[in-house]
Batch of 4 targets.
Target 1
Amino acid sequence: MTGAKKLNILAINWQDWKAPQKGGAEFYLKEILLRLREYGHNITLLCSGYPGASHTDQVDGIRVIRTGSRNTFNFHLYGRPIRSYLRNNSFDVIIDDLNKIPFYTPLWAGSTPV
């Protein structure tokens, strides 16, 4: 991918691959994100937190932002802190990794492609 534009990518999933209740979906997303990172893209994962997890982390070269819990994560996506975070961080594309309950990302992502 020489000469191609490096993208700022935001991925949204309800948990990351370090979470105690992780599963196949998290490892599948991890593989996709690691490959995108290998192409030089900047990757941020927005997901739920869990006991003992830090709010921000660097996991396998991917920035991880955790908010809420498995039970409240979707509600956090509609709040002011997330909208403020999106305004202050320019993403070229958002990957909405749907798992059970939709995030309705196109409704709050503004003009960023989902």
Target 2
Amino acid sequence: MSEMFREMVEFFSLADSEKQQYEAKSASDPIKCGNFNVANTSNQSFTLWREYLKLYVHPDFHCPHQPQLLRDVVQEYTQMIRVLTRKLIEAVCEALELNQRRYVDEILKMESSFQLFATNYYPRCPQPDQAIGIPPHTDHGLFTFLIHNGVAGLQIEHDGKWFNADSPKNSILVNAADQLEIFTNGRCKSVKHRAVVNEEKDRISIVVANGPSGEAVSIGGLRWWRKMGEQSIVQ
């Protein structure tokens, strides 16, 4: 993990001219980066205080050429996360008394699963009450895996209140995501969360979002989910 954080620091330290080639032009860009901007809600305007890099890494792998070691560490880490994702899906199947082989391989098509690697750099902020790292949201996909450099900043919502999720350094925090809630007919709940900033320390987080294959959602799949004995939340 320490090697991966070193590569992330090196990427964000690249000259702007080097990073400009990856500036986000479309949500579908397989490699995209960006930095501070302003977000607006119905009654508030605030600064998004972060730089980010997002990569589509499976089923096709995409990565910047610099830093030189970035490709290798991202490939190794995301491959390990895919193995872990499969084990978690199998555990969900067992808990819900589903046929693991059919659910994992035929319905979700995990061999060609979608995977996104994202890293966020939150520099020290002089006015943290006027900015936010990432606004409240839930994640797409099945599971999201998050690690950080030891600086807190993740918060989760429960019963309308926000709580710090201060996971230890070098631990992996796992969030249930939107498609897991759908595929389990609401038995597993997607977790709303946000990232806040501080004025004392820089924070780096690394997130890997994992979803089923893009071919997974089908009418046949819906029929299978409804066999779970509840009215499907998928309409």
Target 3
Amino acid sequence: SDEPTAPICVRCIALANELGDQLPISWRHRSQRYGEKLATPDTSVGDLIGDIDPIKVAEGRSLGDPETIHFGLIPRTNRGIFAINELPDLVERIQVALLNILEERDIQVRGYNLRLPLDMLVVASANPEDYTNRGRIITPLKDRFGAEIRTHYPLDLQLEIELIKQEAAIQAVIPQHMLDVVARFTGLVRESSYVDQRSGVSARFSIACVEELSGAALRRAAINGDGEPVVRIGDLEDVVSSLRGKVEFEVSQEGSEVEILTLLARQATAASWRALLGGQSTRVFLTNLVDWFDAGNTLATSDLMSSSSILEAIGPMEGVGPLLTATEAQMAESEGLVASCIEFATEGLWLTRRIDKDQQDGTSTYGSSVTEVPGN
């Protein structure tokens, strides 16, 4: 990229002098004016700044000819934005090579001293030094950046939910109460004393959790022939084991990762249940549901059970409307959403010890707290 009225590279200057106002120009789309490089230990000065092109030398050009320079990524992103990811991973001698670019705007390639008034924005990303322990940003380079911005995890529940919606590749219906549970689950994992606080828990944890839940719902819908895949609370414990690789636990907790995550997931579910269904509007339905279990009825659910099977087992029950409103399930005509809300309400009753649950061979059977659940 170059400015037609004030070119800086040798070739562009020659063309401008030769063609004058007839110099052909073209506009570059903004997507073409962004360059990015992942800083790896094998990154060289030639990759970022430039080097002598041996092919041009072999063609007969002399080493003193500026045309023999093959410019690197940074000069080629002139009049654009260039990002360096994981800057501390660059070895220190490569970081030193960036000093002149950020301050004096000149580059040196194998003895060439070319002053290029680059017009560009250079940004870089880095993790805290105590997180990776792989490298550091040298002080002179850090001093040349105009600003240092420290990011943080979402500060409240709604921000976490919005981040999940923005970043996750969701291919199933994720009810609002499930997003609430996942967001609370992520927060509890971050705060847990069992987790290495230096490593932290990134937003990828909640994003991966929602994507795994979406996959579980798609699998169930494909097997049962459901028209609409909807995530249910029973899917959460099934995907917990796949999330342990995204969390660094304390050494003393080795071997207990899944149990810890399962416990935190249940705590998050209970907190969401109290927040969403703890009001007066849902009391009628919850009371009717407890009475239904006290009458000796049981409800069996599993990750492959269809939504219609859950609704047939429960049957018509007063208070479903306020339940859907409390969980922000707007599509009341959807069997999947209604079944998801009912299963969430039932799980919350068990977590608050108002009913019992027995888990065997992937099936959860809910029943009265005073009547033995089949299988116990």
Target 4
Amino acid sequence: MHWFFSHKLQKIELEAFHDDATNIEKYLEENTINLALIHFMMAYVEPEIIISKASKILTSGGLCSIATSTLGSFKNLQILANIGNLINKFYGFSKISTDDNVKIPKNEKKLESLLEKYGFAIIAQEICEEKVKFTDLYHVHNWGVNSGWLTQILAPITKVQLDKANFFLKYFFPLEDTFKSAIILAQKQ
């Protein structure tokens, strides 16, 4: 018999809230939970804000699990975006990306310092690196939007903008790059 069926099923009480993560204090009181998962949301929410809020709602000894990419990712794509922005400026097009859209931490050291600032001790940490190869700008756009890793930057780009950018940037492909993510488990002191 499968282990799932050999155990008595238990009912658990679950409350779900659909709101911006920065509004968590509207739903949870301070020092009331023992696990906070901050997975792949730092692209959309300032890391310091979400870590400070996690610190408030976690009990002493509570765990905070973080999984996020860092600005150490895609160094070659960052260079390509800067070249594209220069071309766009020359021709009067809008920017490919803006720093305002990018909230992910600079690197894992920045995450460590934020966690320590808000009363966490790091229990475990792993840095993951994956090599990626893009055949053209359309491949970058498709992968970035559909994987979710670059959605906040690439989703607003129209097909016309993509075609214009590809006309100038196609000579840089194929392009190899590295994706970096940090996975950290920290405990509130």
